[in-house]
Amino acid sequence: MASSSGTSSGSSMLQNSGSEENLQALMDQRKRKRMISNRESARRSRMRKQKHLDDLASLVTQLRNENHQILASLNLTTHKCLTLESHNSVLRAQVNELSHWLESLNQIIDFLNATNGAFGPPGPLFEPDGSCLFNNVPCLTQHMTVGLSGF
Q: Where, per UniProt, does this protein localize (predicted)?
């Protein structure tokens, strides 16, 4: 019996060691699968991260281009605005000058109407060559001709 008990305990040890080996192999296989799965998951994560970085880099490039276009448009608009302000300033000065000329001409007309016939019969104000018949008006007509030539 001792031999059978020794055999029986020997086969039981063999079974135990076989089970332990199978269990170890199974655990090793699961460990390898988990490691492979983790590596694949990390690879996918790196790919997602790289795609996200590429998308962000593309967005930065697009926004920089839009920014340059907006700045160029702003500079052009600012230049046009300054040009218009300059032209408006010139036009205001011309309006002011023309208003003074008109006021002077109205004063001359008022004077002529008030003195109608006092210095002789009313006649034309200008000679056929365009010069004025009055001594104090040639300066005014010269300014008018020079000022109006800019239009």
A: Nucleus
Measured between alpha carbons, how far apart are the two ends of the chain, in Å? 136
Global pTM value = 0.48
Q: What whole-number distance in Å separates Cα of residue 149 and Cα of residue 143?
A: 10
Q: Per residue of the chain (151 residues), give pLDDT as tens.
A: 444 444 555 555 555 667 888 989 999 999 999 999 999 999 999 999 999 999 999 999 999 999 999 999 999 999 999 999 999 999 999 999 999 999 999 999 888 888 875 655 555 555 666 566 554 444 444 444 444 444 4
Q: Tokens in use for 89?
A: 């300033």
Coil, strand, or helix at residue 25? helix
Show the tokens assigned to 6: 């020794």
Using an 8 Å Cβ cutoff, are 126 and 132 in contact? yes
Q: Are 104 and 142 in contact (CB under 8 A)?
A: no
DSSP per-residue string spanning 47-105:
HHHHHHHHHHHHHHHHHHHHHHHHHHHHHHHHHHHHHHHHHHHHHHHHHHHHHHHHHHH
